[in-house]
Structures are given as structure tokens and as C-alpha cells.
Design a protein that fits this description.
The complex is a heterodimer of chains A (248) and B (356). In chain A, 39% of the residues lie in helices and 16% in strands. Chain A is of the alpha/beta class. Chain A has a single domain, classed as Thiamin diphosphate (ThDP)-binding fold, Pyr/PP domains (Rossmann fold), CATH 3.40.50.970. In chain A, helix 8 links the parallel strand 5 and strand 6. In chain A, helix 1 crosses helix 8 and helix 4 packs across helix 5. Chain A is globular, with a radius of gyration of 17 Å. The termini of chain A are far apart. Chain B starts with a strand and ends in a 6-residue tail after the last helix. In chain B, helix 1 crosses helix 2, helix 1 runs parallel beside helix 6 and helix 9 packs across helix 12. Chain B folds into two domains: 232 residues, Thiamin diphosphate (ThDP)-binding fold, Pyr/PP domains (Rossmann fold, 3-Layer(aba) Sandwich); 111 residues, Rossmann fold (3-Layer(aba) Sandwich). Chain B is globular, with a radius of gyration of 20 Å. In chain B, the strands form three sheets. Chain B has a seven-stranded mixed beta sheet, sandwiched between helices. Chain B has a five-stranded mixed beta sheet with strand order 10-12-11-14-15, with helices on both faces. A two-stranded antiparallel ribbon of chain B has the order 1-8. With 356 residues, chain B is α/β, with parallel strands linked by helices. The chains are: A alpha/beta (248), B alpha/beta (356). The interface between A and B is large, with 35 and 38 residues.
Chain lengths: 248, 356
């Protein structure tokens, strides 16, 4: 008896992610959600630039590869051309919260009926560990070798908190994939974000706190612990906005 | 033929886009292309189309990319500084082999420049603009009627070759009013089996992508795209010849500079100067063959442009430097008068002009 099998939402291409990286888990949650909702064959995913650039090889649906930071704009064009299709972006923190801030904020302001999966691992992974807009104060990276000095480069951007002030945005939740309980909650949030889109409820963004053992210089186990102790305190988990719940 | 209506170039272009089946327009305000967006904002909601004012030119072109990837006719319009911002997206669209129409109603540059007409984005339009090995199909209308007609042409060629097309107009073409016949040109439709419309609608997964970390594969993509560029150069060149039968001096000019030059040529003829003109309508592909042939007949060429001489090299290359090439231009938003062009022609005739 098969009790667990690979989701149809993922292709058979081997993932290129580093050992211990949680992108794989997040990919699975997104893919499972699309498959369970029965919308995989009418979904268009937008891959971004960064570690997840090759996600167009992994999600088992039509995919468009976007320029750095532009995924929400590409998603907007795709959704407006295909309103009956399910459109999502999968973006990292550099892509979404630095170079793509404008596209993110304005997609939210328009309440664009898309789903954004925002993977926050507090670092630029693909380029080898530079400071991200979400790098924590005092966190050491390649471009903050003495720790992030907030007097020089300012403070991290808290994306869910920032977007919660935008009238247009429908559903914002921050989740993490550092333990079984949180992974289950993350799945629920991601699935809910897609359900919102199917129901035409507009802009949903799920921020997923994720690890980067390679560029954090930690073992996978230590990385999970670092996320528990540092990221979760700076970036509290929870629902930051649920417009339709509030209306009930 | 239907009756003609008096329209601004920008509005004629916008109406043509709608008639050509475009229902997705994404833009950002900038002078002097404003009327295109204003027209679309009025019309699109009435016909079930999308008009969206993006947060930036950068976002607008990427919305065009997303819509084009899904197989619809999509467009954007802007003016020079805005096209610089769109250049990233245009490069991605070229790499992703996505058809769409990009309109540049040029103004003076560089930098913020001015808002008066210019043709100083010739290099940007014909030599790249963005990064990488690519070309756009570049159409240069010289009347409001051509603003209308070239819009159909642009969409058709883009779809036919999976290449983004650009209409390189200028502030004059956009702003001036002329009688225009709104007879629909031919709408060519091409299957788009590559479009990302969901796997329910096609075999396998469709992926729109310009990334390859394999140099051999990326080289092959570029080579295969250049094979299509070669077909475009062979089959899609457009130009107009004016009084070239017995011409001894050949003016080369496009857009508004060609309109001014026509007046100068008519006047020159009255004074006994045998002048004609070859007007490129496609700037890429450039009408090389006709210019090369003309070089065997005429004594000299005069490139007339609203810039500092950006097309001159192309004229010299096309003519194989068989005959001297001269240049007359105004820039920064200043438009030359027919008298100034006539004076440049007279200097060439008298042997007083300096070669480029």
C-alpha cells in the first residue's frame, strides 16, 4: 500500500539545491497544493532570479522565467491575459524585497489576483552569500563581513508588516519550514493563498522563513536552530492580513 | 476606400492596435506618447481589453512579457528615457522569443533630454538597446497614415517571426494631425503552440525562458534566432523611393526628416539639382540592397536625421563607400527646415560640403 508518494506537482528533474536547504520542502508544499486543488494543468508559474531560478524545471506546470525582481509584473501580464488561469510567483528575498520592491508593493496595491510565494532566508544564496534586504542586524555575510551595521545600511525590510498597510492586499501570512508543525501550517497557508486566487479574492503573499546552511556557514541542523532562535524572533510568524476573514 | 478622418498620430496608432487585435496595453506616462495611453484607457474597458498603468516602465514591459508569453497580442508605448528603462525587458523578450509591439515616440536626449521630437534613439533601436545578441524589427512611419498601417505590420511581423517589433516614431509623428483612412490592414494570425496557457491546452509543459548555463546551448539558441533574422532581412525590407530615376544626389532619411527632405527635394528640382530620396521604412532590416544599387548611379548620398548622424554608418556600409556620404542633422528637439536641407544639397553640388 502506498502511503506517501511524490506529488504530481513536481517534475522528475533532480533539485539542484544544497543539502539542508529548505527550498525543496517549499517546492513540495506549493506543488502539492496545486495538485490537490486540481489546478495544475491550468497554472502558470513565474520563476525569479536567485537560487530558485531553475524552479521552471521543477514545477510540473507551464512556467515563465522572469528578470530579477520583475516576477509580480510578469505575473500581472500573464493573469490579465489569462484571468481564468492560476498564476503564482516563487521569489527569494533579494528578488522580492530589494530589486523587486516596487513590483511587489504595486501588485499588492492593485490587489492583483495572483499568489506570491516569498522565500526569506536572510541572504543572497545564488551569488554566494551577500547581505539581503532581510539580513538580520549584526548578521555576517560576504558583504557585511563585520555583521550588518544598521547605522550604515539600515534595518531589514519586514515584508508582511509593510504590505499589511496596503489597502489592496488580501491575504498575508508569514510561515516557517523549520519543524513539522510549522511545515503543516505553511502548507495550509500556501493552499489557502491559492484557494483565494481561485475564488477571485486577489493578492496573496506567503512569506516562508527558510534556511541557507551553505551561506550561513552552518550545518543543516544548526541552520534550523539558527532560524528558530534568530529569524522567528525578528520575523514573527502569523497572519498579517486576511481581508475576507475581517469582513466576516 | 472609406472616408478619411483627422487624427493625431498617437491616436491613429492606438486605434490600429485595437483593430489589429491587441487587447492588452501596459504603459507608464511620459511625453510625447501620452495620447496612446489616454486612448487605450478610454477604449480598452469598453471592449473587454486591459489597460493598465504600471508603476514604472520597467514593470510595464514585464507585464507585456507576461501577457505575450500567454499568447495574446500585447503592447506598450513610451518615449526615449522610458525605452531605456524598458530595455532590460526588451532584451528578455528577445531572448524568450516573444512577439509584442513596443512603440517609441522619440524625444531629445540623452538623459532626461527634452520633450521635442528627435530621432536620436536610432542606435538604441537598431543596434540593440539592451544586452545580448538580438535585433528588433524596427518600423519608421513618416505620416499619420503610416502610424496606423505600421502598427498592423508590427504585430504581424512580430507574430510571424517571434521577434519583438518596435515602431520608432518621434514627437512629430505622435502629435501631428493628418487625414487618415481607418481601413483595417490585413491581420495575419499565427498559431502559438509555445504559449504558457496551462498544460490542459497543449502537449507537455511550455516554458518561456532566456536562461541557459550551457554555452553550447545558448550559442545554438542565438544561432537559430539569427537564422530567422536572416529571413527577415531577406523578405521584410521596406523602403520608399522618391524621384530616384535620374537622381544624382540621394537623400537617405526616415520619419519626419524624410518629410522635410521631400520638400527640399521638390525645391531643389526646381533649381535644376537632380535629387532623389530613399526612405527606409524598416530601419532594421535596413534597406541595404537598394542603397547599394543606387550607389552605382548617384554621385553622392546625404543622410538627413534628427540626431548627430547615427544612421550614417549604416548608409556607408550599405553603399560599400562607393560614393561620398554627407550628413545634415539637427538635434536636441530642433527640427530642420527644408531650406537647411536644400542648402546642404547645394553645398554638395558645389563641392563645398565636408564628407562624413
Amino acid at each position: 500500500m502506498v502511503v506517501f508518494e511524490k506529488t504530481k506537482g513536481l517534475t522528475d528533474a533532480p533539485l539542484h539545491y544544497c543539502p539542508g536547504c529548505t527550498h525543496g520542502i517549499i517546492h513540495r508544499l506549493v506543488a502539492e497544493s496545486l495538485a490537490e486543488l486540481g489546478v495544475l494543468d491550468k497554472t502558470v508559474g513565474i520563476a525569479s532570479v536567485g537560487c530558485s531560478v531553475f524552479s521552471y524545471n521543477y514545477f510540473n506546470c507551464d512556467m515563465i522565467q522572469a528578470a530579477h525582481g520583475r516576477a509580480p509584473a510578469v505575473a500581472t501580464g500573464a493573469k490579465r491575459a489569462n484571468p481564468e488561469k492560476i498564476v503564482f510567483t516563487y521569489q527569494g528575498d533579494g528578488d522580492l524585497a530589494a530589486i523587486g520592491t516596487a513590483e511587489t508593493v504595486h501588485a499588492a496595491a492593485r490587489n492583483e489576483n495572483i499568489t506570491i510565494i516569498f522565500v526569506n532566508n536572510a541572504i543572497y544564496g545564488m551569488t554566494g552569500g551577500q547581505m539581503a534586504p532581510t539580513t538580520l542586524p549584526n548578521q555576517i555575510t560576504q558583504t557585511s563581513p563585520y555583521g550588518r551595521d544598521t547605522t550604515v545600511v539600515g534595518y531589514p525590510v519586514k515584508v508582511c508588516e509593510m504590505l499589511s498597510e496596503i489597502t489592496g492586499a488580501s491575504y498575508l501570512e508569514r510561515v516557517a519550514v523549520n519543524n513539522v508543525k510549522n511545515i503543516r501550517a505553511a502548507k495550509k497557508a500556501i493552499k489557502h493563498a491559492f484557494e483565494n486566487q481561485i475564488a477571485g479574492k486577489g493578492f496573496s503573499l506567503i512569506e516562508v522563513l527558510s534556511t541557507c546552511p551553505t551561506n550561513w556557514g552552518l550545518s543543516p541542523e544548526e541552520a534550523i536552530k539558527w532560524l528558530d532562535e534568530n529569524m522567528e524572533t525578528y520575523y514573527p510568524l502569523g497572519v498579517y492580513k486576511d481581508k475576507y476573514k475581517e469582513e466576516k | 476606400m472609406s472616408e478619411k478622418v483627422l487624427m493625431k498620430g498617437n491616436e491613429a496608432l492606438a486605434e490600429a492596435a485595437i483593430m489589429a487585435g491587441c487587447r492588452h496595453y501596459f504603459g507608464y506616462p511620459i511625453t510625447p506618447q501620452t495620447e496612446v495611453a489616454a486612448y487605450m484607457a478610454k477604449r480598452m474597458p469598453k471592449i473587454g481589453g486591459t489597460f493598465l498603468q504600471a508603476e514604472s516602465e520597467v514593470a510595464a514591459i514585464n507585464m507585456v512579457l507576461g501577457a505575450a508569453a500567454c499568447g495574446v497580442r500585447a503592447m506598450t508605448s513610451s518615449s526615449s528615457p522610458g525605452i531605456s528603462l524598458k530595455s532590460e525587458g526588451i532584451s528578455y523578450m528577445a531572448g524568450c522569443e516573444l512577439p509584442a509591439l513596443i512603440v517609441n515616440v522619440q524625444r531629445g536626449g540623452p538623459g532626461l533630454g527634452g520633450i521635442q521630437p528627435s530621432q536620436s534613439d536610432y542606435f538604441q533601436a537598431t543596434k540593440g538597446g539592451g544586452h545580448g545578441d538580438y535585433h528588433l524589427i524596427v518600423l519608421a512611419p513618416a505620416s499619420v497614415q503610416e502610424m496606423f498601417d505600421m502598427t498592423f505590420k508590427g504585430f504581424n511581423l512580430a507574430d510571424k517571426y517571434r521577434v519583438p517589433a518596435m515602431i520608432l516614431a518621434d514627437g512629430t509623428m505622435g502629435q501631428m494631425m493628418e487625414p487618415v483612412s481607418l481601413d483595417a490592414s490585413t491581420i495575419e494570425t499565427y498559431e502559438k503552440p509555445w504559449a504558457t496557457t496551462g498544460t490542459a491546452e497543449h502537449e507537455g509543459r511550455n516554458v518561456i525562458n532566456s536562461l541557459s548555463l550551457s554555452p553550447a546551448q545558448l550559442e545554438q539558441w542565438n544561432i537559430s534566432r539569427y537564422e530567422r533574422y536572416a529571413a527577415i532581412e531577406k523578405d521584410e525590407v521596406m523602403y520608399e523611393e522618391f524621384m530616384m530615376d535620374d537622381a544624382e544626389i540621394c537623400v537617405v532619411a526616415f520619419g519626419i526628416a524624410a518629410r522635410v527632405s521631400k520638400n527640399a527635394i521638390v525645391e531643389a528640382r526646381k533649381r535644376g539639382l537632380k535629387v532623389g530620396m530613399i526612405r527606409p521604412i524598416t530601419l532594421w532590416p535596413f534597406p541595404k540592397a537598394v542603397l547599394n544599387k543606387a550607389a552605382d548611379k548617384v554621385k553622392a548620398f546625404l543622410s538627413v536625421e534628427l540626431n548627430m548622424g547615427q544612421m550614417v554608418d549604416d548608409v556607408k556600409l550599405a553603399t560599400g563607400c562607393k560614393k561620398p556620404v554627407y550628413f545634415y542633422g539637427r538635434t536636441g528637439g530642433v527640427i530642420m527646415t527644408p531650406e537647411e536641407v536644400l542648402s546642404a544639397l547645394t553645398k554638395i553640388e558645389k563641392g563645398e560640403a565636408k564628407q562624413w
